[in-house]
Amino acid sequence: IILAEIISKKINKLNNKKENYKTIMNRYLTNNLALNNTMFVPRGKYKLLGNGNHGNMPHDPKTRINNGFTGAAGLFSNAEDFIEISNQLFNYSFFKKNYLNKNFNYSFLDEKNRKRSYGGIYLKTDNNDSCYIPNMFSKHSIAHQGYTGSIVVYDFYTKIHFSIFVDAIDKETDLKAKDFFLYLHDLKNIVGLYCIAIYMSTCQNQCKL
Prior knowledge:
Blueprint: H1 2-15, H2 21-30, E1 39-40, H3 61-64, E2 75-76, H4 79-90, H5 97-104, E3 117-118, E4 121-123, E5 141-145, E6 149-155, E7 160-167, H6 180-201
Antiparallel strand pairs: 1-2, 3-4, 4-5, 5-6, 6-7
């Protein structure tokens, strides 16, 4: 939230304007990257999941009271745009290859820490319960999980991407459903296995894992 305020004030000062964070993000991020289905406070044709049944607002209460957009939450997207992001990531037009390789080698001081993420991005670990990357994916993989359960995974070695969109928030408790993580980790490994099988079947014996 604080970072969003800093970004907004800095850009408004440079451009001599008074625009909110949503307008700035649309101009410099979503529009610039051709992410046509990524937005704050979506309206119209979109059927929303992963926001705890809060209409077109995010689950995060701090963001809801701030008109649906902050630096902490509120940005909605879909599978089509995640495919576009994967194309840009795998072609290294989103982040440079050297930058990504440097982050893949990031070391965590506490190897037993359950939530081993770097800037909100999960890196590959050997502990199935410590990241959202399938066991059989390469160490050059990243993932992210939203608060309400959805995950997105990218393997830069095989150039495999998949997303799982869910809304795991219980309406009564406003928390994730019981045993959700147990089923999610099983599901991500099953999807990952299918992805690897398809990858190998299309390589004509020229692929390596």
